[in-house]
Amino acid sequence: RRPWHSRVEVYVFAITCVLAICVLSMLYPARNINYVVNMAPTTNQAGRRRTLMRACVHFTRELVLDDGFSRTDRTDSANALRWYLQELREADAAVRLGGDKSITTGADYHTKGHNEVMYDEGCPWREDATDCSTEGMPGREDVSKHGLQFLLASFYDAVETVLSRYAGPASEYNTHFRTHDDVATAEEFAEVEVQTERLELLESDRDVRFILTAFAGDVFDGLGMILTLFHRETAELLDSIHVETQLLFAVYVGVVALLFYWTLFRRTVWFALHEVDKARDFVMMLPTHVLRSDDVHHLVDFFLPSPTGTDDDDHDAPDQLEGSRLPLPERRASLAHEGPPRTTAFQSSGSAGFQVVR
Fold it and tell me: Which residues on neighbouring strands pair with residue 346, listed in sequence order?
């Protein structure tokens, strides 16, 4: 009966385990591919919201002042404000709900921290999250304590109010402001003058003042906190993928080294070498004195070393075996010519050996 470590089914099982771990090493981390791919545009649009919000603040100020210092007139400022407000709303909806801007799944469906900042009561982006009051904002004193989404909705509402109050009708909206002629613009605004009477609107108009405070206030800080959450979540996910990959590789190496090499291969090689030693010991115990002379020499030839010094049974030593291949009469003549009989001793591990006289 063959030992268990030399059976074909055992090797088939070992190779199957190695292949299964190889497949698992690729498929198990691949479950996070869609999530990683989705996080890139989500993080991009989350950061873009802050840029778009600040652009809205800038063009709100330019629309109210209308002094030409930004090289835009009232129409261009209004059109730019409408465009950036629309982009901000689209980016915000894509981040929260998905389905746009290359975002497949919105953060509302997979990020708990995002939902807490956006929809729960409080203002966690402040150093003192318990104090959400907004001083000097009549009608909007507690707007920050209802979550970032409520604060953003108030920001959108304030921008719409400013547009309706200081800009022309929405029917005049166009995107020509994005293709300015620098030469024509330089000639048009060659001389500009500050309209001091409109500076007071920045303080007296509560909607304008609320928008201006968002530039570095609660809206900006809240959006920054969401962006930080996304960066942290992405880093944690990549770290977990890295750890999983290292663990699977360690398991693979362990299976190959321990199961396949150490348990099966080395044991099988040891078993084969042990069988060789047993065969040699058996041959050494054969009663060679009852054999004919030529049979003895054939038996001796089997154990003579090869010319290369290796135990290769397929290669004989020509010089040492040249006489043994001669017919018996010629070999006897050759032995008589060589002189007195010589004794060749053969020793095998675990045996006393025997002698053959030639």
Answer: 354
